[in-house]
Design brief:
GO molecular function: metal ion binding
Keywords: Metal-binding, Zinc
Largest sheet: 7 strands, mixed
CATH class of one domain: Alpha Beta
InterPro entries: DppA_N, Peptidase_M55, Peptidase_M55_sf
CATH superfamily of one domain: Dipeptide transport protein
Number of strands: 12
Structural class: alpha/beta
Radius of gyration: 18 Å
Shape: globular
Protein name: D-amino peptidase
Strand content: 15-25%
CATH topology of one domain: Rossmann fold
Length: 271
Amino acid sequence: MSADMEGVTGVVDAEDVQPPGRDYERARVLMTEDVNAAVRGAYAAGATDVLVNDAHGPMRNLLPDLLDPRARLIKGRPKPMGMIEGLTPEYDAALCIGYHARAGILGVLSHSFMGHEIEDIWLDDQLTGEIGLFHATAAAYGVPLALLTGDDTACNELKAWDPTVATVPVKFAKDRFAAELVPVAEARESIETTTTAALSRLLTPERRSGPRTLAVRWQSASVASHLTAIPGVTRRDDRTVTVEADMLHLYRLFNLFLRVCTAVTSNPPYC
């Protein structure tokens, strides 16, 4: 289970998701309770082990003392596989809790990994963001993505990739920092029941072998220039780099890109 924050029930603003925002501490509780709803749903479906990866920002957001004690937690960073850390082929399913739409989509707190720093990402020439890369990497492990929760634009983005995956919209985007919220109790009940249903009808993903091509267009030409020091990375233009590798290597390499970008830029808040 990978837990992001922008798509959590009740969250709409940077003050909710960035420490020391005035509502950040409250949003940590909301995030933890969305995860707990999914954990309850997973165990109702017969799960015997649930691993949760804190995948947002500092990756120290979930509150261990409030987390369902049946779940194990990966907390902190850096992690070689970032938002997908901990996933291995031994797991029967992956879940995305609190996810958001990619950069350029008018969704709640939409961006791709680093806010302003990444303008676009393409996987095999298909525009993507965090959702598409997660789906592709999980499939490369042979693990089906069973569920995603977030706003309606995040749910629609996943459905475009794979219409078989269950989604739970916990809010409906009005703009990038505004949404019509599903009542908290209703949202958590829906997360729990949909998780149970989704895990009861898992489909085996189509495993795609061989190299895939990742392209990333950065805000800064300096980032692209630095990344060409990595073997196999080339520049398509001043701000766009491309690299070809198998999907698991690409995802790990992309997390290295993020660390290089952080070192090269000041990386201002994405909002």
